[in-house]
Design goal:
This protein has 153 residues and is mainly alpha-helical. The chain has a domain of 88 residues. A two-stranded antiparallel sheet has the order 1-2. α1 packs across α4. The protein is rod-shaped, with a radius of gyration of 31 Å. The protein starts with 10 loop residues before the first helix and ends in a 6-residue tail after the last helix. The mean pLDDT is 79.
């Protein structure tokens, strides 16, 4: 039988494709990095997109989810170990950008405030500081309330 032999991916090529897919590399770029001898001179040429999709279907499908699972696992381990703050930031960035994780600044509040402050052990000087602070907070809030359309009861 004449012609080109059927394509068979090597383990090295499979590992390369899975790694590149896990890092989010576009398929158009992956094909440029998986090269095979072509022609009589034995020059290396990239494989085609159809060849990549046909023979590396599993690696393409499993690459990114496998990578993100490893990153999430590492993040969980690092959350319990305070020695890696910069690495944790990198992991958080990857999970936010690639795994759809997000941070939220939304807080809900039912309006009930359930706490008591006990100033019985405070000195006169400490109480004066607290009183001064609270007065300033009320004064700072007053102009905002005066400018709003909400009327005080």
């Amino acid at each position: 039988m004449a012609g080109r032999p059927p394509f068979e991916a090597t383990n090295e090529e499979r590992q390369l494709v899975k790694a590149l897919a896990s890092y989010g590399t576009k398929q158009e770029t992956i094909v440029l990095l998986v090269k095979r001898p072509k022609g009589k001179a034995g020059d290396l040429a990239p494989i085609s997109l159809p060849t990549l999709r046909k023979h590396f279907k599993t690696e393409l499908a499993e690459g990114e989810p496998s990578f993100l699972a490893k990153v999430a696992d590492q993040a969980a381990k690092m959350a319990l170990n305070e020695k890696h703050p910069k690495q944790f930031e990198a992991i958080r960035f990857i999970l936010k950008c690639r795994a759809g994780w997000r941070e939220t600044d939304r807080m809900t509040h039912d309006g009930a405030i359930d706490f008591n402050l006990d100033f019985s052990g405070a000195t006169e000087d400490e109480l004066a500081v607290i009183e001064k602070f609270l007065k300033r907070r009320v004064e700072d809030a007053a102009p905002a309330a005066a400018n709003s359309n909400v009327k005080a009861a």
